[in-house]
Amino acid sequence: MRRRDHRKIVIVDGAIAFLGGMNLTDEYAPTSDGGQGWHDVQVEIEGPEVKDLVTLFAQVWTQEEDDPLFPRGRPEAAAARRGGVLVAAIGSDQRPDRKAIGNAYLHALQKAAKRVWIANAYFVPSLKFHRALRHAAARGVDVRILSPVKTDVQPVYYASRALFDGLLRRGIRIFEYQGPVLHAKTCVIDGVWSSIGSYNLDHLSIIRNLEVTAIILDEKFGSCMEALFEVDCKNSVEVKLAEWRRRSPRRMLLEQFWFQFRSFL
Questions:
Q1: Which one of 47, 95, 148, 174 is most buried, counting C-beta atoms within 10 A?
Q2: In this predicted model, what pLDDT tens digit does every residue of 145-181 receive, in sequence order?
Q3: Is 13 labeled as catalytic in the residue annotation?
Q4: Which of 8, 39, 51, 203 is flagged as catalytic?
């Protein structure tokens, strides 16, 4: 009953795949076209890794539908090209692999030496993830979190801010995006390890949802991700600890109230 397919995948002819945080909804249309201009990140993949995404799609289709998905045989993914980058498309399910994406994140965080820059729409991380961020900051790593001001899920907005004081005290920088709804789920570590996908740092993604994330190991791609993050930070306001502690008692109460329900958000 609580199983939820949260993946966002488009596969064309078994040769090209798109994945990230984008939904196919009117909210992403420009405001000039009547949309809300939501801000998100998507990646296009070509090559052998597309085959794994075809498999992920087929697994869910087979479980949920009676119609055969590949009556004429499965499409073959294109071969790797010279000059390509290392990509792994990781899917999580409610079976034993449900923690695959989270484990990949944690491993990368534990190895981080210079920078950890995270943009996440619903930032209510687990204790393990929270601890890994604190330990990275203690090692001198530049840890930054980009979080939305405008959101479509207000309880998560408040629950995430219950963590801000502790993160700021440990030297972690937090930026609140001032544009339209930030729906991205990205991370770039040391300018080399990047992730783009549907995986939120919250209980639903960790335990319940079917998710997919692309892990990309490439310095050039990582540089592009860092440049995008810096642009988003310029459209944000950095949260300062002294100012944060002057927020209203009502805000503090809402934050603590919704944080108690973080496992259901």
A1: 148
A2: 999 999 999 999 999 999 999 999 999 999 999 999 9
A3: yes
A4: 8
User: Would you place residue 130 in the very low, low, confident or very high pLDDT band (cuts 50, 70, 90)?
Assistant: very high
- Host domain of residue 194: 4-264
Residue from 190, 202, 203, 232 carrying the catalytic annotation: 190
Which of 40, 183, 202, 203 does the annotation list as catalytic?
Answer: 183
Render pLDDT for 61-107 as a digit per residue (tens, 0 to 9): 887 777 777 665 666 766 667 778 999 999 987 666 778 899 999 99
* 152 is annotated as an active-site residue: no
| Domains identified in the chain, total number | 1
Catalytic residue among 13, 97, 107, 111: 13
Q: What is the pLDDT of residues 213-229, one digit of tens each?
A: 999 999 999 999 999 99
DSSP per residue, 106-141: HHHHHH-SSEEEEEESS----HHHHHHHHHHHHTT-
The verdict on whether 26 is a catalytic residue reads no
Which string of DSSP letters, residue by residue, matches the chain?
---EE---EEEETTTEEEEES--SSGGGS-GGGTS---B--EEEEESTHHHHHHHHHHHHHHHH-SS-S-TT-PPPPPPPPTT--EEEEEEE-SSGGGGHHHHHHHHHHHH-SSEEEEEESS----HHHHHHHHHHHHTT-EEEEEEESS-S-HHHHHHHHTTHHHHHHTT-EEEEE-SS-B--EEEEETTTEEEEES--SSHIIIIIEEEEEEEEE-HHHHHHHHHHHHHHHHTEEEE-HHHHTTS-HHHHHHHHHHHTTGGG-
Catalytic residue among 40, 185, 202, 232: 185
CATH number at residue 200: 3.30.870.10
